[in-house]
Amino acid sequence: MPLENATNIGEILYQERARKNISQEQIFEGVYSQSRTSKLENGSCIPDKLLTDVSLQRLGRCSDTLEAIMSLKEYTMFDIRETLKRHFYSEDYPRDKALLQEYRQWEIADKPIHAQFFGIYHALNEYRVHKDIIKCRNELETALEITFPQWRTLDFAQYSLCGQELHLMILIAFFILEDKDIKEDETLAYIPKDQHNAVRMLNQTADYLEQYYCEEEKAKYFPQCMWLLAAYWKQQSKWDKVEEYAVRGLECAAKSGALPLLAKLLELVIESRDFLLGQWEERHAVCCELNSLKEVLTCYGSWVLSLNNLALLQFLCHEDDVSLDFEILRDIRKNCGVPQDKIKSCTQTTISRIECAKQRPFPANFIAITKELGVDKHYYGSRVMSNNYDLYELAHQRNQASFNQEWKKEAELLNQLEASLDMTIPINKQYIETCRLEEKKHRGEIEPEEGIRQLEEILRYTMSDYREGKLRVPSRHEFVIFDNIIGFMHKKKDFDKGLKLYEHLLQVFQKSKVKEEYHTNSMLILYKNYGEMLEDAGQLELAEEMDIRGIHLAIQCGQGDIIGKILANLACVYQKMDSPEKQLLSKEHLRNAYWLCCLVKQFKPAQVIKKYYKSVFNGEINDVGYRFHSQTILYSPLSDQNRKSEHPADLEESQKP
Length: 657
Known about the structure:
The chain is mainly alpha-helical. It has a domain at 214-315. Helices cover 64% and strands 2% of the residues. The protein has 30 helices and 5 strands. The protein has helices at residues 9-20, 24-28, 34-41, 49-58, 72-86, 93-105, 112-130, 133-147, 163-178, 193-212, 215-235, 239-256, 262-276, 280-300, 302-305, 309-314, 325-336, 348-355, 363-372, 389-403, 407-420, 426-443, 448-459, 476-491, 495-511, 520-536, 540-556, 563-576, 580-599, 603-617; strands spanning 67-70, 322-324, 380-381, 626-628, 631-633. Strand 4 (626-628) and strand 5 form a beta hairpin. Helix 6 (93-105) runs antiparallel to helix 7. It starts with 8 loop residues before the first helix and ends in a 24-residue tail after the last strand.
C-alpha cells in the first residue's frame, strides 16, 4: 500500500521512464529485482539515497536536486561512502580499510549497487599500498560487471548507466593508460591495443554523458574524460587534440563551477597554445585564471595542488543535502511546545526512543507524527514538488540565473515555473512567492519591514513550527527565505537582529549530527552573507573567519562558483583593517576574485570587482604581470586619477559580486 506523502520519488521515476519510453528492466537492471522495482514505483517502499541517485542518473537526471531525509543508520552508511570518496586524497589506508570493513557489516551491503561501491574502494585502497595495477584493474572490472556485465562491448547507447558505472569505466581506462608494461601493437599505428580501447572507452563515456546526462550531472565525470584524453594525446604530441579535449573539459567544468581538474585543464590549454602558436590575448587570460586559481588553492587548499592523478579522479563536486528523521521530529515537537506524552500518533516510549535515535521510526510513523504537528515532510524533496522532473531542474536553472545576476533569464524561467506548477501545493506556493518577492527587492519596490513580514508568512507554509528564537535545520529553500529576511534587516541596518539570526542558524547546523559538507548550498550562502554583514557591522575579525570558512568548505566540496564572490568579500574586510599586510592581501584577493569569476563565466560580478579594484588601487587588474613556465607577460599600468572607492556592498543590488 502506498505511503501517503512518504515520497513522490517512485512516481517521478515512473513518469520519467514513460516520457523517455524506457523499460523498468533498463533502469533497474543489475540493481533491483523486478518485485522490488514495482513496489518502488507505486510508492510502497522507499529507496535509500544511493539507489535513488542511481535511478535518477540512469534516467540522465541530476541526483543533487533532491534533499534526502535519512535514519541514523542510513546516514552512517552514507557518511562512510562520502568519507571514502571525499577524503581519498588523505591516503589513510588503515582508516579506509576500517571504514570498508564497517560498511560490509551492514545487511544492505550485499545489494548489487552497494557491493559495487565496496569493490571500487577496496581495489583502490589496496592499490595505494601494493601498487599492483593488474590486480586493481581486474577488481574494478569485476565490480563493474556486477551491474553492467555487457560493458566490454563498448556500445553504451543502448544501456541506461549511472554515475558510479561511468566513473568505473573512467577508472579502468585510467589504469590501462597508466600501465607502462603494455606492449605496442604495430597494426594500430604503434598505439598499444589496450590503450586504443581505453581511448575509445573514454570517448564513448564522454559521448554518453553529452547525449544522456543533464549539465549538472555531466560536470562530475565529463571533465575527467577530457583530462585523460588530453593528457594521452599530449604524450603523442598531438597538440590539436590536446587543445580540443582540454577546452571541452574546461568549458564543462567552468560552466558548472565544478572545481576538480580545473588547474590541470588550464595547464593543458596553455601548453597546447604554446605549441600551436597564436591566440596570445586568450592565452594571457588563461594564464591569469590559472595563476589566480593556484594562488587561492595555495593559500586555502594546498592539499588540492598535491593530489596525484588517481586522487584527482575521486575529487567530484558535491551538492548533497541531508537531514535526519529523528532530529526533525524532535525539533518540530519542541518548537511547537508539545510534550512527548501528548503525541497521539505513537506512545511516549516510542517517541522518546525515536528522538534519542535508539529506534528508527517506521515511515508511516514519521509521516503521521509530522502531520499531527502541522508540518508536511517527504523523504525526498526539493525546492518545488511535481511528478515532472523537468520542473525540479527548471527551478535549479532559475536559481543559477539569479546567482549569476542574469535577471532576464531568471524572470523567463520563473514565469515558466509558475505556469507549470500546481500552486495549491504549499512548497510550490512558497517557492514562487519567495522568488517574486526577491524580484521586488531587486527592483527596490518593497520596504524592508513589509518584506520581512511577507517572508515570515511565506516561511510558515512549510515551517509552521517556526517561532522567534526557535529554529530547526531548514531545507534549502527555507534557508533562502531566512537569508532574504536577514537581507532586509541588513538593508535597514538592523545588524544586531540580523547577526543574531545568522548566528542562530549556524548553531543549528553545527548542533546537528549531519556534517556541514552535507548542507553545501545553505552553508556556503550562510558563510558568504554572514561574513558580508559582519564586515558592514565592523566585526572584521569574525567576518574574516566566516569568509575563510566559506572558502575552505567550497574547496572541500568542489564548488568553484562561489569562491570568487567570497574572496571579494574578504578583500573588502582586509581593506578596512589597519595593516599593510592586510592591505596587500586585499589587492591580491580582489585580483584573484576577478579572474576566478571570469573562469566560471560570472562576468557581471567580475566587472563589479574590476571597477572596485580600479577605484581603490588606481590601476587595472588586467595590467598585472604574470610569470608562467619561465615566460613573463608584462603590461604597463594605465595611469588614472584618484577616485572615491566604491565598496561592492554599496553598489546597486544588480551589480553586487
